[in-house]
Amino acid sequence: MKLEPIRDDESDRDLFEQMFCDPIHMKDLGGAQPREKVRLMHLAVSLILSRSLNFTATWHVFRLVSPLQVGSILAKQVSCMEQGKGWIYRIVPEEEDLKALVDFNSEERVSLSRGVGTVCVWEGYWEEHSIPIVEMGWGVVPRYQGRGFATHAVRLLLQMVEQDTERRWGTVIHAFTSLNNAPSNSLCRKCSFRLVGESTVDYDGCPLISNHYEYDVKYS
Q1: How many domains does the chain have?
Q2: Contacting residues for 60 by C-beta, under 8 A, at least 6 apart
Q3: Residue-wise pLDDT tens digits, 22-74
Q4: pTM for the complete prediction?
Q5: CATH number for the domain that contains residue 153
Q6: Sheet strand arrangement including 206-216
Q7: Nearest to residue 181, comparing CAs of 128, 142, 215?
């Protein structure tokens, strides 16, 4: 498994659409998002990461060309990325990972090799307690779920965080998962996050009751 930066190309745009336009993937996050909005989300991330436009310029363009709200959560994440306070990667299985997937044909394997989801960490803000926090999130295209991709990706990103010489992520990383999302709750346990209770988080204006996890960062 490897983590690669989001790119401004068709395959990464398709990856975003497969995730954020899918009602199953988004059932706990306010439902499937409009395709136009998701394409803007992808463009925002890829432009900022490639340094083609800065955050302010990118969002100014979006306000001019689209009546859709791109999303306050994404806006915060991308702003953090521009400031060096956020990382986002696509999750890419390697050849060894694909060998075990006997139930996928050659065409599906090619699709898998382009990416199965995303994983990110960013400096956020916990509205419920009015404090800044570092948060981690992940997502995998529904048809590729249940194969350990997200767990492996989160472990890789945690390793990258703990090897960060700038130690920009503080001492605790937070994660918020839907109460009914058994795979994500299981992932948190497997990756040494500890459950500290329930919390209400805001996802683009939609209040969500979530399990709140914390991970103690151990810098190398």
Answers
A1: 1
A2: none
A3: 887 777 777 777 787 777 777 767 766 665 444 444 444 444 444 444 455 55
A4: 0.80
A5: 3.40.630.30
A6: 2-5, 86-92, 117-126, 131-140, 172-178, 206-216, 194-203
A7: 142
